[in-house]
Amino acid sequence: MYPADFLYSKDHEWLRVEGDEAVLGITHFAQEELGEVVYVELPEVGQSFDAGEEIGTIESVKAVAEVYAAVAGEIVAVNEALVEAPEKLNDDPHGDGWLVRVRPSGAVEQGELMSAEQYQEFAETG
Asked: pTM here?
């Protein structure tokens, strides 16, 4: 269910490293818990964040959830398509529903992040 080449946070975000950038999104588990997503607030390109810092919010019919930076770095792109069609987060959370692209300020290492197998166990056991 969770792509093996991604890393996952305890805050239910995923991270996919692509060269010197990383793509960040929320997991299938997170979107399922939220329910129907109706609004997404993302940071501005050029903003920098520390790992664990809030970078945006996702609003659903059930709740509002914060999105946190899985790694420290600078936002280099945001998924503008989510502004017009936030339901993409429900339809394809590990693909078209990506949130931001980040240029990490250091090496991306597993450290606090989990493998797909570790995350699946974490999500199942809560």
From this structure: 0.94
